[in-house]
Amino acid sequence: MTLTLGEGRTPLLAAERMSARLGVEIWLKWEGANPTGSFKDRGMALAVARAVERGARGVVCASTGNTAASAAAYAARAGIEAAIVVAEGAVAGPKLAQAVAVGARVVEVPGTFGDAYEASIALGEKEGFVVVNSINDDRIEGQKTAAFEILEQLGACPDALLLPYGGGGNTKAYARGFEEAAGRLPRLHPAQAQERRDTFASAIRIVEPVHRAEVEDAVSRSGGAVVTLGEDELAAAWRRLGREEGVFCEPASAAGAAALDHGVVRPGERVVCVVTGHGLKDTDALRRPGS
User: Fold this and answer.
1) pLDDT band, very low/low/confident/very high, at 291 (cuts 50, 70, 90)
2) What is the pTM of this model?
3) How far is CA 93 from CA 36, 99, 159, 193, in A?
């Protein structure tokens, strides 16, 4: 079946002030322009459509918020149930509101994202729901289309791609997309929070990345490196994106931009920073001191 809410074809924005300041050609892949406000929609459209084709009566996922909003919306669009498992108190309110508004069942469990993930697997087995976290390869297949778009929009492969690193599924997807469409990888620089367990950048608050091995392999093959960021670095980059480029994203989405200050790009290079989700996803972050 074809299932869509109009995902994809998101803008690639020239970051002129950031480029001038750093001496590199910086582009922002603005994934907050997707229907539910994050990059998750690319993969979820395909994952839910395939689940319906296979006869599923529902889908289930664990989430730090964006997967929840996306799974719920596409399940509603397809006319099936959605169950969302989250760690208690760990998900931004607007993201849960998105899921509830379209009829999803939200289940809170004690602990971390890892505990929610294990609970989602168990719930899926019990109720016969398809798990639509990024272990579902249809998600990766949908998300790789962002790499195709960057190649089309730039007319060439960028020198480097910088993006947030939570579970690692998006890094895996971009690597697959670039290798399939361009036959090579840009240098990959996934950017993670040093305080993975309790970072204020809630979308990447994942202690154990499920795709760690694939990320390490892709990063190594690309000649890149994982960048680890402090909380103040994330907050500063988040503010700069808004104040220098007019892009209001959620804090985790600024991780790629924050990595620019770690010496991972060279003067004159063409760099794409993936900005993964809209700022309206996590308005509580605006209450952080200095915001």
Assistant:
1) low
2) 0.95
3) 14, 10, 37, 21
